[in-house]
Specification:
This protein has 23 helices and 22 strands. By secondary structure, the chain is of the alpha+beta class. The strands form six sheets. Strands 11-12-13-9-14-15 form a six-stranded mixed β-sheet, with helices on both faces. Strands 19-18-17-16-20 form a five-stranded antiparallel β-sheet, with no helix packed on it. Strand 14 (about 510-515) and strand 15 (about 520-525) form a beta hairpin. The termini are far apart.
Length: about 800
């Protein structure tokens, strides 16, 4: 078994021996992998370019060596798509068959080989571009966005190209062998160039001599011009002129007119030059034959290399053909394992699709769990055999790497089966003394001989053509023997005993072809036992009514009643399915309506939110103006004796008010979050460096770290002053500047700007912040810059008459009390 597995892998590893049909699961995976990579290229999913660098380099090398100058052309840059093999026949076998016959290749054959080798250069450049795309797009740094999918690398297609090997001497010889007209190059083969030049010179001399002869006055009366034809023509490679019969002595006669009045004569003056011309042409043919033989010998020397290169191109062409066929079938690439499972939703017969027919899809499943066999039941001409053949075709298409026609949105599975055995049709023969039954038994014998694990066996009405009781017994025994060997089996039958196997043996599953309105729908219904409906089929095929009536009368009452019950059941089932479809449609409409209502609600909420945001923005602008007023107050209070604590509290609490207003505008609960969370989104600590004039710190005082990082919001104690202060944060020494620390808020810890025992609606701000807000509202307060004290309408002292106690009140309540 190990030797056999290694042989299979070696067969697939060499493009020369790689068959169309895979011999292992791994072979199927590599074929489907190549198909999926080609689908990405054909679907335009890959962005990139490739260039004809190798072909260009070859032409540059040839040009430089032949002319001694550089004639390098611009490298052609092409979009990265399918391999550049369209329009080429790649028929190397017919060329090699000429060599096998001992013949020498000539111009057309050698030119084809040369074209194929140049095509290999382009395919190598194309493969290099795929490898470069892999390096640029696969296996790099991980994306910062989790939703970005990792690009799959190209593996299978480059592996096919890697077997191309180009011999520089051969490719240069073939590339330089022909000129732009497809003839042997006179530059590469100088002897051929010299002979061609000699031939051209001789031809010009001959034509010039004849023109001179025709221009002589003495020849004008001898020419036969009444025919109206050309005065010069060629017969057997000799240039002749038409003269009257009596003047034929001017040269060698090569032909005459039907009337005999005109002779076609080669003038004596050009006989010798023409002989020289014929001799040069003969030498040229001999020299060309010598070159053809030389080129043929070079091709024979590199035959295996050439065949392998062309085989690589052929394998790429096969992959492209698989993709194109899959597109015609609207097929999908199935999952393939080695467990004997076929599971496909809306599977369709591929041949019927290729014929352009409207095909009904069916759900097929075999091999899942204990299910090893499928018994297909239903009416005659109802599609049972179509499903049977579909299973076999799917198994073979999977081995060939062809996408199978199933529902695109559902993942299909078609496992690897080897072999696929079938008994479909009738092989009865008078000459071979085979009846219908004996023909089936002969095929079944061979099926049993070849049946083994991983085999797929398809039997069309086993046991038919003989006594029903004995036929059923043989068919059941055959099925059990196949299952015991590990096969997967699908059969069609009309025998009731075989239909009922699923109820007694869980290795069997039953499915029936749907039959509605006295007509088959060709749809497979899993789990249903299909009736044969022989009389209904006969009626549809227009059998005489009298015969049908008589047949119906001959049925026993139980059989007739059973048939009627099955028909009624099918009709009721159809009604239930229609009702179910209608309910699903209504449900879908309800979901659409709910989605529309939800969308309208979201739009309305968005409008409301925008309105609140606009209002909040307007109020925020007012608060910014108040902040500016407070900044002015702080500047004037530098020498007033106001404590750093009061000023820091005022600054922080005003910002808290602003944030609460924004929260209320967004319909978010407006309670002030405790500053002990010190969340960057909720609290702003004011660096001491920004508190001009009141930014003195002392050793032993408490501060709060406002530098972003691990210590942000932590309490610290000043240990030593300097350009950078030495602090103790939780017992850990840290050096920070004034712009990286802040005074603690009102609680002394910089974490709780409002007393924790206050209710959410009882927002408390400092009196100085309140005074700043009142300045904007009434404009009645003033500040004495010299003294730093505040005065209200000339009053310089705070008394009960000019003071309102706003402790415990929010801003609006304070305004009303004022």
């Amino acid at each position: 078994t190990q030797v056999q597995s290694r042989d299979i892998q070696d067969t697939d590893a060499d493009v020369l021996t790689m068959p169309i049909t895979a011999s292992s699961v791994e072979g199927v995976h590599s074929r489907y992998g190549a198909v999926q990579e080609m689908q990405r290229l054909m679907g335009g999913q890959i962005t990139g370019f490739w260039s004809t660098a190798r072909r260009n380099a070859l032409k540059h090398k040839i040009s430089s060596s032949s002319r001694g100058i550089s004639n390098k052309k611009k490298v052609q840059r092409l979009s990265l798509g399918t391999p550049p093999i369209d329009g080429y026949t790649l028929d190397i076998e017919s060329i090699m068959s000429i060599i096998d016959e001992g013949k020498v290749l000539e111009g057309p054959e050698i030119l084809d080989v040369s074209s194929m080798m140049e095509l290999c250069l382009d395919v190598l450049d194309w493969s290099d571009a795929l490898e470069e795309w892999n390096r640029d797009n696969v296996g790099g740094e991980e994306s910062e966005f989790e939703f970005e999918l990792q690009q799959e690398p190209f593996v299978q297609l480059p592996s096919l190209v890697k077997q191309i090997h180009m011999d520089e001497e051969l490719i240069e010889l073939l590339a330089t062998a022909f000129d732009e007209e497809g003839k042997l190059s006179g530059t590469t083969f100088p002897s051929i160039g010299r002979l061609r030049s000699k031939i051209r010179t001789l031809k010009r001399g001959i034509l010039s001599s004849i023109e001179s002869i025709l221009a002589l006055p003495s020849m004008r009366n001898k020419l036969a011009v009444e025919s109206g034809g050309s005065l010069m023509s060629e017969i057997n490679g000799r240039i002749v002129i038409p003269v009257q019969q009596q003047y034929s002595s001017v040269g060698i006669v090569h032909d005459a007119s039907r009337s005999g009045k005109t002779s076609y004569v080669e003038p004596s003056e050009v006989v010798q030059p023409t002989n020289e011309l014929r001799s040069a042409e003969s030498e040229l043919r001999a020299e060309e034959a010598k070159v053809w033989r030389q080129l043929t010998e070079s091709i024979v020397k590199h035959r295996e290399e050439i065949e392998r290169n062309v085989a690589s191109l052929g394998q790429l062409d096969v992959v492209k053909a698989r993709v194109k066929l899959g597109r015609r079938l609207d097929g999908t690439v199935p999952e393939v394992k080695n467990e004997g499972v076929v599971s496909a939703i809306d599977a369709k017969h591929p041949i019927l699709l290729l014929r352009g027919m409207e095909v009904v899809g069916s759900d097929v499943e075999i091999g899942q769990g204990k299910n090893q066999a499928m018994i297909l039941t239903g009416p005659n001409a109802g599609g049972k055999t179509i499903i049977l053949k579909l299973l076999g075709l799917f198994a073979m298409m999977a081995r060939d790497g062809i996408p199978v026609p199933t529902k695109q949105s559902e993942k299909a599975r078609v496992d690897f089966f080897e072999p696929v055995l079938a008994d479909i049709g009738d092989i009865q023969s008078v000459d071979a003394d085979l009846s219908t039954f004996s023909g089936h038994m002969l095929v079944c014998r061979e099926v049993l001989n070849d049946a083994r694990k991983d085999a797929l066996v398809l039997l069309d009405e086993p046991g038919s053509g003989t006594d029903p009781n004995q036929g059923v017994a043989i068919a059941q025994a055959l099925l059990e023997a196949l299952l015991d060997r590990g096969c997967r089996v699908a059969i069609t039958t009309h025998f009731l005993d075989l239909k009922q196997l699923a109820s007694s043996d869980d290795r069997f599953a039953v499915a029936g072809m749907q039959f509605l309105g006295n007509r088959p729908t060709y749809k497979l219904i899993p789990g249903m036992i299909g009736e044969s409906f022989a009389l209904a089929v006969a009626e549809r095929l227009k059998l005489p009514a009298s015969v049908l009536d008589r047949a119906n009368g001959l049925l026993d009452s139980e059989t007739r009643k059973m048939g009627e019950l099955l028909r009624d059941l099918e009709e009721q089932k159809q009604e239930v399915e229609k009702t179910s479809e209608a309910l699903k449609k209504k449900e879908f409409e309800m979901l659409e309506l709910k989605a529309e209502m939800r969308s309208q609600q979201e739009k309305l909420e968005a409008k409301q939110l925008n309105a609140r945001r606009d209002e909040a923005a307007r109020f925020s602008k007012k608060l910014e103006e108040k902040e500016k007023i407070l900044e002015g107050i702080l500047e004037r209070l530098q020498g007033s004796g106001a404590t750093k604590k009061v000023i820091a509290d005022s600054w922080t609490e005003l910002r808290i008010v602003k944030r609460e207003v924004m929260s209320e505008a967004e319909n978010v609960p407006g309670s002030i979050r405790q500053l002990n969370q010190l969340d960057e989104a909720n609290v702003e600590l004011i660096p001491i460096s920004e508190l001009k004039g009141i930014n003195k710190v002392e050793v032993g005082k408490s501060v709060v770290v406002c530098k972003k990082g691990a210590f942000y919001g932590k309490d610290a104690t000043v240990k030593k002053l300097g350009k950078k202060l030495e602090l103790s944060v939780g017992g850990m020494p840290v050096r920070l500047s004034l712009k990286e620390i802040a005074f603690p808020p009102s609680s002394g810890r910089g974490q709780t700007p409002v007393a924790s025992n206050k209710q959410p609606n009882q927002k408390q701000i400092s009196k100085m912040a309140q005074r700043a807000l009142d300045l904007d509202e009434g404009g009645s307060s003033s500040v004495d810059a010299s003294s730093g004290s505040t005065r209200d309408k000339g009053t310089s002292m705070k008394t009960k008459s000019n003071t309102v106690d706003c402790l415990g009140l929010n801003f609006e309540e304070s305004k009303r009390k004022c």
